Amino acid sequence: MPHATQRLDAAAEELDSALRGGPFHVALRAAIAARGLPLQRVQHHLSRRGVKVGVTSLSYWQQGARRPQRPESLRAVRALEEILQLPEESLIRLLAEADEDTTDRPRTASRSYRAHAEACGVLDRLLAELDHPSPDGGVHTLGHHERIRIGPRREVAGRESQHIVRAHRDGVDRFVAVHHGDPGCAPARMTVHALENCSTGRVRVHHDTGVLVTELLFDTRLRAGDTHLFRYGVEDGTAGVSREYVRGFGAPGGQYALQVRFDAAALPVRCHRFTQHSPAAPRGGRQELPLSGRHHSVHLVEPRVRSGVLGIEWDWE
User: Fold this and answer.
1) Which strands form 211-222's sheet, in the order they lie side by side?
2) Same domain (yes/no): 117, 71
3) Is this structure's pTM higher than 0.70?
4) Domain check: are 93 and 123 in the same one?
5) What does the pLDDT read at residue 50?
């Protein structure tokens, strides 16, 4: 069957070319076509590996309409490399390179998609070490208020977070908090403080990506439907000049408020809030934030967050 053989050779050649040069969605589409798998079968193989991704999402990924960016989505991409018999890191590399090649980034201070992908991989391993039971830990967030302190060296001196959560299963007795320091930080030198209605448990750090993960232990076991309010802080101050604070949301949630307070000896010349559909997307929704005179702070409030990225960026003289 010469024609069938020619088609297979052409598909293999197209896949090889796409894996070398990308972009990600073309390589994914070529890989699925080369293996002759319908998307329903691809989804089935992912499900057998404990990864949940909808057929619609897979379709969007191979069309280039969306890009994987959540931790669960990046796990799916790594599983796809195995299912589609691709070289390890081949699809992940294309995602990272696409971000580095993008020329419309507004500022070099923003984290690259490669850094985000690496941090997600590290985070998965650290969460596994802590036997984290599910991506959301068994709770939904009703409210999350963060306060960031910028020190006199223009560094992130520390952060304080207050959470209001509701359990959606019985037996929840802890929350796993994540702090991602600025480039050059030293997570091993950071300190976690349990401030209200919790105590600190195990702590895990990864120096290269600046990720710190800590258990916050409740003094009670929540039943499904119970709410809990707790507060904790992270003393940082280990990195250099900071120019932004970013918070990603994998799923819609409750209210989110972010306040950035600057030391009187280090005030920015302007501040903006921004949004992104994903860490790989260009920034939009920019809005200038006035710096309060007395408290030297700016803030944003989202009554109900959507999946994506929210943040505040600032410029120094």
Assistant:
1) 172-180, 211-222, 199-206
2) no
3) no
4) no
5) 87
